[in-house]
Design goal:
This protein is an alpha/beta fold and 481 residues long. It has 18 helices and 21 strands. Helix 2 (43-60) links the parallel strand 2 (33-37) and strand 3.
Length: 481
């Protein structure tokens, strides 16, 4: 099971992809990581899907990553007496804490924290931004507004407040329970919703206690403003373009996406581009040209992964959507211009020994006839550094830690292999050569680059590089390292 591309694909599971046969077909079509959406389904449903993934992993003998996506707090208006009302541009409308049924002039908004943050001229968005209101007057229990963009408002529609930092914790009580459940299952990544500040990530890290890596979803303007500090405390980033496009002008999202990807690449942290990438394939067997271009743009920018949401969770063509993404990635990465774009957008590494060695590995591999870069990693840090270099040769990440192997399935270019622990570098070279042959990265007369840290099984100790033959007889016949 070797991918013919460096990009990774994340596929969300749901009603359309809940059986062993379908999930296996998604993996074989190209899905590298499966997303479990904690907003939908019971814990028992999530447990069943998790077990199916692990069964497929066992049966196919390849590590598979699992990402649990926490719901985050949901801000919604109350219920209307008529279930729905039409708001006209220019009319007055009031939100308040009154629990009675709403009408054409007011409705309950059961979130006192919103009223605490509002100021005059603040914007309120309802129903994914389809309705826009401006706050004229507000207090601790009300907000009198003018409708700027009208439309139909109905029961429990979502409310967004893009202009202010809301005093709302990123983790609700449900999220905390879901986080503990997901960690007890053994997921590899946790995606955090409603992140506004680095403290939101720090709280989740304390609760996860090292049991899963953390991805911060950038879906609010305040998260964009605080991005550098959020990135610093996160293990990865998701560019959640759907919510960003609600709270920001849609034309602001593409440059934000590009900037966030660049920042993640600079520090070597994986970044996922998400939302509406193949939306039409929920009902159509083929995507639009615009969707294909959207996926291609993320690949050219150097994103680690692209994500399918409803397309694979509830669409009629889930496997076809994964296959299409796989084909787009292979086509783009085969474009000579892609190599030039990636090379031109590399950032200079800082002067540490591990970074210098991974830089040297890329330059050797790209300027000589090297078939693959093989790196031994305990924590995953060495493999991530190699990935950051975006080498145009395959990268094999070997680790004795199955958890590390699963987590690295999200990272650009890495073919992860669970291997036995080694105590000598020559044995590491032999193990790398065997992996290169087994997965058809190299033949007997080829050469590979092997990097590792000595002593072994010590995180962050990368300090040795060797160009080695794939033929084991030549390895043992060579001089001792």
């Amino acid at each position: 099971m070797r991918r013919q591309r460096s990009l990774k694909i994340v596929a969300t599971l749901g009603p359309a992809s809940s059986t062993y046969e379908t999930i296996k077909a998604l993996f074989e079509a190209g899905a590298d990581v499966f997303r479990l959406n904690m907003s939908h389904g019971s814990h028992e449903d999530i447990r069943t899907k998790h077990q199916i993934i692990r069964d497929i992993e066992r049966d196919l003998g390849r590590p598979i990553g699992i990402l649990a996506d926490l719901q985050g707090p949901k801000l919604r208006c109350g219920v209307f007496a008529n279930d729905t009302e039409d708001l006209a541009e220019g009319q007055d409308f009031r939100f308040d804490l009154d629990g009675t049924l709403g009408d054409a002039k007011r409705v309950n908004l059961p979130h006192k924290e919103i009223f605490a943050a509002l100021e005059p001229n603040t914007t309120l968005l309802v129903n994914d931004g389809k309705i826009r209101l401006k706050v004229n007057e507000c207090g601790p229990d009300f907000a009198n507004c003018t409708v700027q963009v009208g439309g139909e408002i109905s029961n429990r529609k979502g409310v967004n407040v893009p202009d202010v930092v809301l005093p709302v914790a990123a983790l609700s009580e449900k999220d905390k329970a879901d986080l503990e459940f997901a960690c007890s299952l053994g997921v590899d990544w946790l995606a955090l919703s409603f992140v506004q500040r680095p403290e939101d990530v720090t709280e989740a890290r304390e609760l996860a206690d090292g049991r899963a890596s953390l991805i911060s979803k950038i879906e609010k303007p305040t998260a964009v403003e605080n991005f550098d500090s959020i990135l610093e405390v996160s293990d990865g980033i998701m560019v959640a373009r759907g919510d960003l496009g609600v709270e920001l002008p849609v034309y602001a999202v593409p440059p934000i996406q590009k900037r966030l990807i660049r920042a993640c690449r600079a520090v070597g942290k994986p970044v996922i581009v998400a939302t509406q990438m193949m939306e039409s394939m929920i009902e159509s067997p083929v995507p639009t040209r615009a969707e294909v271009s959207d996926v291609a743009t993320a690949i050219y920018e150097g994103a680690d992964a692209v994500m399918l949401s409803a397309e694979s969770a509830m669409g009629d063509y889930a496997v076809e959507a994964v296959t299409t993404m796989d084909n787009v990635a292979k086509e783009v990465e085969g474009d000579p211009n892609y190599i030039k774009v990636i090379a031109a957008s590399r950032t200079r590494s800082s002067a540490t020994i591990p970074e210098a060695i991974t830089l040297a590995a890329r330059e050797i591999a790209e300027t000589t006839d090297i078939k693959a870069i093989c790196c031994f990693t305990e924590s995953g840090s060495t493999a991530v550094l190699v990935s950051r270099e975006k080498a145009m040769v395959p990268i094999i990440a070997l680790t004795p830690n199955v958890g590390t192997a699963r987590r690295l399935t999200l990272v650009w270019g890495l073919h992860t292999v669970v291997t036995n622990e080694v105590s000598r570098f020559k044995l590491a070279v032999v193990s790398a050569a065997r992996a290169a042959r087994r997965y058809k990265f190299a033949a007997e007369d080829d050469k590979i680059v092997v990097i590792a840290g000595v002593p072994f099984n010590t995180a962050g100790s990368t300090n040795i590089l060797r160009v080695a033959p794939v033929d084991e007889k030549l390895i043992f016949a060579s001089e001792a390292e």
